[in-house]
């Protein structure tokens, strides 16, 4: 668990922690970077949109191993929960924009959805909860990357 | 940067990203603004020295072919 304030200075610290955690859990390098990017974008959204750039608001992040059954195989995964106490988010706005148009802005959600297998927003009491999950390909070659992968906590 | 693009009206603007280890969607948005401002005045907007993170984020944003990108300064200046 990581408890921090909504100060952008913590973004690089969180990126370092998430990238190292993903690596340690056996994700291929490209997926380590995409998971890191997703968490960074999600945290930036909390700082900017949930807390209006106020740097002293609480953010909690929980990390745990998870798994699912897919086509008869067990897939290990990493679940990341980001919690903040900002105002409720309009869930209908949590869809990334079309990339057909070349214009600045609106890319963060696209990067989050591109990186993660599950992106779920819920409101619980006074808390926004964003749940991100990435599963590790069970054996052989990781999808989309061509890089060898490992099971969580396993060897190459 | 946008102000300088509009004021200087140079034929091309070359941006060195070799010291930029990480770039998020806001950084990409700034580059898109620079590109648009350059196009508005008929100038080229050139990037070089992209990190793996930066190159990937442009690919994921489907912008990698929108920008003129070179590996290093020599190639960028010779273009």
Sheet/helix structural class of chain B: alpha/beta
Share of residues in strands of chain A: 25-35%
The termini of chain B sit apart by: 21 Å
Shape of chain B: globular
Work out the number of β strands of chain B: 3
According to DSSP, the number of beta strands of chain A is 5
Order of helices and strands of chain B: HEHEHEH
Summed up, the helix count of chain A is 3
Helix and strand composition category of chain A: alpha+beta
Oligomer: heterodimer
Q: What's the mean pLDDT score of chain A?
A: 86
Radius of gyration of chain A: 16 Å
Largest sheet strand order of chain B: 1-2-3
Largest interchain contact:
A-B, 20 and 20 residues
Strand order of the largest sheet of chain A: 1-2-3-5-4
**Main sheet characteristics of chain A:** 5 strands, antiparallel
Q: Looking at the structure, what is the overall shape of chain A?
A: globular
Q: What helical percentage do the residues of chain A reach? A: 25-40%
Main sheet properties of chain B: 3 strands, parallel
């Amino acid at each position: 668990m990581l408890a921090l304030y909504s100060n952008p200075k913590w973004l690089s610290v969180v990126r370092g922690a998430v990238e190292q955690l993903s690596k340690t859990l056996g994700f291929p390098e490209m997926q380590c970077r995409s998971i890191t990017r997703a968490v960074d974008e999600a945290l930036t959204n909390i700082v900017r949109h949930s807390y209006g750039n106020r740097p002293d608001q609480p953010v909690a992040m929980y990390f745990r191993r998870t798994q699912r059954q897919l086509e008869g195989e067990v897939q290990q995964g990493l679940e990341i929960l980001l919690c903040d106490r900002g105002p409720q988010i309009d869930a209908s706005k949590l869809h990334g924009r079309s990339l057909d148009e070349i214009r600045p802005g609106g890319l963060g959600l696209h990067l989050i959805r591109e990186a993660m297998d599950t992106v779920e927003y819920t409101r619980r009491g006074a808390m926004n909860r964003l749940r991100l999950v990435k599963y590790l390909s069970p054996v052989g070659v990781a999808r989309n990357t061509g890089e060898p992968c490992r099971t969580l906590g396993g060897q190459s | 940067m946008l102000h300088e693009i509009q004021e200087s009206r140079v034929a091309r603007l070359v941006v060195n990203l070799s010291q930029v280890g990480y770039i998020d969607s806001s950084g990409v948005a700034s580059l898109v603004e620079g590109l648009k401002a350059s196009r508005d005045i008929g100038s080229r907007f050139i990037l070089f020295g992209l990190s793996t993170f930066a190159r990937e984020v442009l690919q994921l944003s489907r912008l990698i072919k929108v920008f003129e990108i070179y590996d290093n300064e020599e190639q960028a200046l010779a273009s």
